[in-house]
């Protein structure tokens, strides 16, 4: 026997599939903060005692641009200017020539350098040597002044070319102040005309001048080039010493 065929099944309903995800639900807005109510501030208590006046300050007022206004030297008297320059020369002379704790640091020793003191010592030495000479006084002064002035410039350039960390005019000032002992020796030799006394005085003052110039010149250059900086200085002072002994 042949069974009857089954009727065809009805078509199934298809579910639509979307590739894009549904948007997320919106987030709830945060609650607004409610303002708090503060009590009104209390009025300050009234006092019948007056406030004390501000205490006078002993410190000078400092300007915003620096340590106060710069002193005006154009309207000051001439005598005040001369006194200020003389006090600076005496202070620098003490720092360079005489023993003090600042001789090992040239920056502290001559931070306030000047050229009036070296110029005065060079001119004084030239005048002393010219007064000691019996003839050709003007030529002696010219030779002494030219030797000292040109020698100081050449020695300063030598220190700078060796890589020295020093200012040009500061080095000139140092070399000029170191001539003070030789000035004293030339003055003593002019007053006492004795060859043995001249040799002794020149040796002492030469050692004094070299001792005064040693810490500044040696600390300004590299330790390996110290001899190259000190030898020309010593040679110039030795030449001045020979001039003091030789002039009659």
UniProtKB/TrEMBL annotation:
<feature type="transmembrane region" description="Helical">
    <location>
        <begin position="228"/>
        <end position="247"/>
    </location>
</feature>
<feature type="region of interest" description="Disordered">
    <location>
        <begin position="1"/>
        <end position="69"/>
    </location>
</feature>
<feature type="compositionally biased region" description="Pro residues">
    <location>
        <begin position="1"/>
        <end position="13"/>
    </location>
</feature>
<dbReference type="InterPro" id="IPR045231">
    <property type="entry name" value="Yip1/4-like"/>
</dbReference>
<feature type="transmembrane region" description="Helical">
    <location>
        <begin position="195"/>
        <end position="216"/>
    </location>
</feature>
<keyword id="KW-0812">Transmembrane</keyword>
<protein>
    <recommendedName>
        <fullName>Protein YIP</fullName>
    </recommendedName>
</protein>
<feature type="domain" description="Yip1">
    <location>
        <begin position="110"/>
        <end position="242"/>
    </location>
</feature>
<comment type="similarity">
    <text>Belongs to the YIP1 family.</text>
</comment>
<feature type="transmembrane region" description="Helical">
    <location>
        <begin position="167"/>
        <end position="188"/>
    </location>
</feature>
<keyword id="KW-1133">Transmembrane helix</keyword>
<feature type="transmembrane region" description="Helical">
    <location>
        <begin position="140"/>
        <end position="161"/>
    </location>
</feature>
<dbReference type="InterPro" id="IPR006977">
    <property type="entry name" value="Yip1_dom"/>
</dbReference>
<dbReference type="Pfam" id="PF04893">
    <property type="entry name" value="Yip1"/>
</dbReference>
<keyword id="KW-0472">Membrane</keyword>
<feature type="transmembrane region" description="Helical">
    <location>
        <begin position="115"/>
        <end position="133"/>
    </location>
</feature>
<feature type="compositionally biased region" description="Pro residues">
    <location>
        <begin position="21"/>
        <end position="57"/>
    </location>
</feature>
């Amino acid at each position: 026997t042949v069974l009857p065929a089954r009727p065809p099944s009805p078509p199934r309903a298809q579910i639509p599939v979307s590739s894009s995800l549904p948007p997320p639900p919106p987030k709830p807005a945060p609650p607004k903060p409610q303002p708090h109510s503060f009590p009104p501030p209390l009025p300050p208590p009234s006092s019948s005692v007056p406030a004390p006046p501000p205490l006078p300050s002993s410190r000078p007022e400092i300007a915003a641009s620096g340590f106060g206004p710069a002193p005006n030297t154009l309207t000051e008297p001439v005598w005040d200017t001369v006194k200020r320059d003389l006090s600076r020369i005496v202070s620098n002379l003490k720092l360079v020539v005489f023993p003090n704790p600042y001789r090992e640091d040239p920056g502290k020793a001559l931070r306030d350098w000047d050229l009036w003191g070296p110029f005065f010592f060079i001119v004084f030495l030239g005048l002393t040597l010219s007064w000691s000479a019996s003839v050709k006084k003007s030529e002696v002064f010219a030779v002494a002044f030219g030797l000292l002035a040109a020698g100081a410039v050449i020695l300063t350039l030598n220190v700078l070319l060796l890589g020295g960390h020093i200012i040009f005019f500061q080095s000139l000032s140092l070399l000029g102040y170191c001539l003070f002992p030789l000035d004293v020796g030339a003055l003593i030799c002019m007053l006492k005309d004795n060859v043995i006394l001249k040799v002794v005085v020149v040796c002492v003052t030469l050692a004094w001048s070299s001792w005064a110039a040693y810490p500044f010149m040696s600390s300004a250059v590299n330790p390996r080039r110290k001899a190259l900086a000190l030898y020309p200085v010593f040679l110039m002072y030795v030449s001045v010493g020979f001039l003091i002994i030789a002039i009659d």
